[in-house]
Structure formats: structure tokens, C-alpha cells
Amino acid sequence: MSAATPRKKSKKGSKPVEKRLSDRKACRFRVTYTILSPRQTAPFTQGTAFTQNISESGINLLVDQEILTPTLIQINFNIPTRPFHLLTLAKVVQCKWNDEAAMYQVGLRFVGILSGEFKQTILRNVDVESPETAEAAQ
Q1: Which of 40, 34, 43, 26 is nearest to 127 (CA)?
Q2: Mean pLDDT by 10 residues, the chain (138 residues)
Q3: For residue 43, what are the CA distances in angstroms to 68, 71, 72, 84?
Q4: Residue 22 vs residues 109, 123, 128, 137: alpha-carbon distances, Å
Q5: CATH homologous superfamily, domain 23-123
């Protein structure tokens, strides 16, 4: 279960109920981001992140800085099989430290309307890893 997943406990102590809008797919590739509505940083702070998983409704990233909720960020996807970058807006819904990765784990929900082409392109390419991404993952 990702950090961005809202969970609701059932009344009788059984397993939490999944509230996610769509299934997530595990993936690992590099993206860049720009903070658009900062609460704690200078406007338009930029950074690099690595994806953990993605769905039609959101994405989970590993970043080297804390990004507070409900910060709005722009994500730039550089898909190796595409001749151009894909951009989308997302809102931070959760940010917590991940000891295993030694980075912050940020759960984001896509905002606005995503075109069908964007969704299909991203979900079709989640298994694509560039050589630099594979090295960074190790």
C-alpha cells in the first residue's frame, strides 16, 4: 500500500477498506518537478524524483526534500519512447520520511483533467527504465 493511499479502518477491526480511485502499477523512472504553490520554499523550486508507483489518479515519488501538503507541483515525465516530455499537475496529499530509501516518500493526486492519451502513454510505459534510472535505483 502506498503512502498516498487513504485507508479507512472497518468497524470490527478487520482489514482497512481501499479508497483508491484506480489501481497502481509499480514503476521506477526519473521525473523532474517544479513546486508551484510553495508553503515553505521559494517559488518555483525544482527537483528530481524517482517514481515508485503510478495510476490514472496519482503517483508516488521519492524526493530529497520534504514537500508539505497541499502543495501544488508540476511533474515532467521524460518517457524514453516518446519524442517529447509530458507535463501534469499534482497536489501533495502525503509526505513522510522513508528510512529504507533515505528519501521522502510523497503521495500525489493528479489535478485537472488528464487526457486519455496522457493516461495511456504513462501507463503503457511504466515498465520502461532508462539506464540512468536503473543505476539510481541501486
Answers
A1: 26
A2: 44 53 75 80 81 88 93 85 80 95 95 73 59 41
A3: 14, 11, 11, 25
A4: 11, 12, 21, 25
A5: predicted glycosyltransferase like domains (2.40.10.220)
Task: Identify which of 52, 6, 59, 56 has the alpha carbon closest to the alpha carbon of residue 26.
Answer: 52
Distance CA 105, CA 92 (A): 11
Angstrom CA distances, 48 to 25, 57, 100, stand at 20, 21, 18
By residue count, the chain amounts to 138
Quick check: 54 and 60 in contact, CB under 8 A?
yes
pTM over 0.85: no
